[in-house]
Design brief:
Elements (H helix, E strand, L loop, with lengths): L6 H13 L3 H14 L3 H13 L3 H14 L5 H13 L4 H15 L7 H11 L1
Helix pairs in contact: 1-2, 1-3, 2-3, 3-4, 3-5, 4-5, 5-6, 6-7
Amino acid sequence: ASNPKDVALHQLLGDTEAGLGHADAAQTALQQAVDADPSMGNLNKLATVMMKVSRWDVAAQALQRARTVAPSAPDPLFSLGELYRLRNAAGDRGRAVAAYQAFLQAAPPGAPFRTEATQHLQELK
């Protein structure tokens, strides 16, 4: 509360709470980071942690917002692929394939997660 604009502090708290299994507290802390700086990176961070605690709807909303904030950024595309692959609900397999393919088209050579996206695509096909 004494440092409401300290994004790194909110993210550390969110990671810690998620690691302890406190999904509500993790979501609150990470949302505070997004409120302080609604960047693609902070939204993507919120989404990836929410996936770890199975908050699929919160993660999906954060990733859609991240894509709006930075439409050409590849990171949210990879994270969407992860969300769909891990959630594995009806239709998610096709959505995961599409997201990984879009990530590979958008990400520059040598970008992080290219190997993982390629591997997941092979597993999903």
